[in-house]
Amino acid sequence: MANDIFRERGVGESKKHTVMIMADGGAAMELPNPFGEIGNSLSDSDLRETAYVVFVGAGRSSGGKPLTYISQSEKAERSSSFSAQPPSLQRSLTSTAASKVKKALGMNSSSKRGAAMESSAAQAKSKKPVTAGELMRVQMRVSEQTDSRIRRGLLRIAAGQLGRRIESIVLPLELLQQFKPSDFPNHPEYEAWQKRNLKVLEAGLVLHPYLPLNKTDTAPQRLRQMVRGALEKPIETGKNSESMQALRNAVMSLACRSFDGHPPEACHWADGPPLNLHLYQMLLEACFDLNDEISLIEEIDDVLELIKKTWVILGMNQMLHNLCFAWVLFHRYVASGQVENDLLFAVNSLLIEIEKDAKATKDPAYVKVLSSTLSSMLGWAEKRLLAYHDTFCNGDIDLMQIVVSLGVTAAKILVEDISHEYRRKRREVDVPCDRVDTYIRSSLRAAFAQRMEKVNTIRQSSKNWKNSLPLLSMLAQEITELAFSEKGMYSPILKKWHPLAAGVAVATLHACFGNELKQFVSSISELTPDALQVLKSADKLEKDLVLIAVADSAESEDGGKSIIQAMPPYEAEAVVAKLVKSWIRSRLDILKEWVDRNLQQEVWNPQANKERFAPSAVEVLRIIDETLEAFFLLPIQSHPILFPDLLTGLDRCLQQYISKAKSGCGTRSTFIPTLPALTRCSAGSKFGTFKKKEKPHMGQRRKAQVGTMNGDCAFSIPQLCVRINTLQHIRKELQVLGNRIVTYLRNCESNHVEDNADGSGKIFELSAAACLEGILQLCEATAYKIIFHDLSHVFWDGLYAGEVSSSRIESFLQELEQILEIVSTTVHDRVRTRVITDIMRASFDGLLLVLLAGGPSRAFTLQDSEIIEEDFKFLMELFWANGDGLPTELIDKHSIAVKSILLLFRSDTETLIERFKSVSLETYGSSAKSRLPLPPTSGQWSPTEPNTVLRVLCYRQDDMAAKFLKKNYNLPKKL
Prior knowledge:
This protein is mostly helical. Helix 20 packs antiparallel against helix 22 and helix 25 (471-494) packs parallel to helix 27. It starts with a helix and ends in a 6-residue tail after the last helix.
């Protein structure tokens, strides 16, 4: 039969789409029929022929009129003409008016078939006019022989049942009685025909009845037994046949049931789902041109009008028609290789009507078929939309809009009109927007994964991959291209359903790249060129994505806040800053360790280099300089922002070095001896011991004046000079480093340059201050060490001890001159004056201590003052050095205190006593009139200070002085 049908195809018939359907058979199989399985092995051919019988029967009973009997003689007269067909099947198909159905579905009305027919006009002229009935026969692949037999059977039925409507007749049952084996070309064909009709009866009355079966009714079981028996052995179908009578009884008892028990107007044998839907699908599929199987025939309007006449038999209505027609169009589009977009456009148009239908009815049977059909469509659409970057490109981007429309409409119907949960909760859900949001996120995640795989492959296949960009930098470039492609190609389409389509897209890409970046950042612990390149690329990508999101959401209600909030910043700059700070800490830790280790090994040897400063200082400054250069070579834009951290750390390392360089060298108080207690002298002796100590007085002695010498100092004078030189060298180099840093900062590409450059005076501020403080401390410590430690044997222990005339300053000056020579040749020019000045100041202080607190070995007469003044003159001349030493002005400035005290030594005892009373009265007020208080030692020697005058009296070798001290203070005298 199939061969006959294909032989009947006309000239110029295209095989292209037939092959395409066969080639894409797998795709068709992927879409199971949503109507459900019939379940008794009825083939498509069986269903097609049954549907054709229903079509012809319904057509012959056009308008619900009773079937009309046509005699054999009339039939013979009409057998040679198509006019034998009922008026509804005789309509001429020569009209060229545009199809109303196609127009309603938004389809093109051009006819490839019409063009093919025009090309064979000569052959067409010889043929009779084509009618709708004849066209339907050809479209349903029914042979003329089969068609003739069907019509002959229907005529016989009409002759035997005059006045009955077609819907009240069980056609398969009646046809079984109309034919014998002799009416068929061969007996096997007759048996196949009989089995088909019996299986149709079983399917329509037992497997899928219009009304549910009664469990107590035996008719279904009897019918099934008869069908099973007939499958093994054909039944006798004569009028008087018992088997036929039993079959009729079983069939009619099942077909004539009703809900209320009254005899129905129609027999129900083909109107139970899904049988009726499958039969109707066969009729609708005949609307596709056999010569161009992805196009609807131009005569679609006439053919559909005839097909709708089967509704009374198949139990169809407009809602089921819309749903079945949508499925047939959709299935043909998918099965034919998805090349005719008009079909999908038509499905979209029908879905609009289906949506209205779904809101208008809640019939469970309809809802079940609707849910199954739309779920199948939605599954197909979402398979493409959830990865629309793989499905659609520039060439077929228009198709995407149709597929999205289909998907969101199907989803909307399923959720809003079918979902009981949705109706119960009445949630405010924008289904189209929600679905499109899902499509965007899913497809872009898939596209991101593909781009990442692509980048991986390119990098691995590159011969110079070591010199190429880091993986994530390459990926960032790919994602930037993807984002702009999305914005230009896909977002304009998706924006119809989602107002922030581009924003959601870039937010998804932002999150995907963010996940990769987070893993990358967690894996790096130090600053590398690759790490900086990746973070720089991430920052650029983020800025591009944010710009797209902001532009896309400019007209939204919240101005795009929701999208921007969904894009937590990468904080690439913060990550860079963290890595740079880690780099800084690492460098500073190395520098600190180096400072500690090398200072322990430093010997402060003046012969170590020409400049006579410590080699360790040179290394420290070199490391600092290299660290600064390396920092400003880092390919970042935040040098000025992060530089303070580095500068602070370097400053602390330098302070650590400076602190250790001066540590252990002592201070002024380290070398000044403890002041002895006050005593009085007698005229007869200069030697004795102290028996009574000075009374304690609050604040009487500062720590500096009661300190003790720490024994031998660990460092020699040359070593101390090297330390002074070292701090001076660092101080000088800090200025050089400061100027270099200002240059670095000015060369930075940053908005913060000017702010930092203006603060250049604060660079290494603490280290510079520490250097100056260290130099002053070391100079003073060196000076007092020389006077009170190195020269103590000729100064503190020997000067004016015993007879003044025999223990003068000459030996001290000789040794001091040698030390001054060493200091002058060792210490740096810039600090030489400072060191010599401190030595001079220490010697002047030492002289005053010898005169005012020299202990029991010292006593002075009025005449000794001339010797002392002469010695002091020699001391000053040593530092003046005939004009080659310290300036006269400097010497005079520091000698003022000594000269003022020497004036007291030149005064007689009575004058000193009166002066003491006078300054005491000035200091302590009227309380000093009745009893002179014992003035505390301040250490600030002055002719106007009571303690100073009192000490001159204590060391005056004179009875008047001794009596005065005895009377007022009961001071012990020297024995």
